[in-house]
Amino acid sequence: MAKALNRPTTQLVAWQRRFALPVCAGAGYAEAYLAFLQRVGTLRTLNVSDDLMDKLWQLEKKLLTLLHVDSTGSPTWFLDSCGQTSHPERRLLLSNHDLGRTLDARTLQLGLNFAARPSELFPGAAMGEDALRVLREYLECHERAREAVQRELPHVREAVRWAGKWKGQAVMR
Prior knowledge:
Blueprint: H1 2-5, H2 9-18, H3 31-45, H4 50-66, H5 131-164
Helix pairs in contact: 4-5
């Protein structure tokens, strides 16, 4: 995994802990799992803070739980959409789950539940779990991440331009 993502093992282990990701034996990591970690690395490179990514991740998992996306029984259900490329305007930033509508629509298709689970004593909304409220909070964090990326892009472009001058030259140590 470290070789595929070109990241030190210690960093990947830290991300697994930070995002409470399941640890697989050996090379048993799905492409979606690796795509998630690649996204995290890219966002860090673009100066999106760990705290903001933590908040986004918690909100995405909460939203996906409220929408009953976790009906597959997969231990990585929240990562299974990572790596998908269709309809990026409808996808959450970290889990890459397709909400079926553009994020700026600020609407959801509620009430879908494909999992056979025992009913709760009180409905989720009565206990303060409101998917639209979570979506609004998520979109605020999403906008902060987008703004951080926009602020960092000129620096990244300059770094790439500067590094391009080294092409074919030995780097001084």
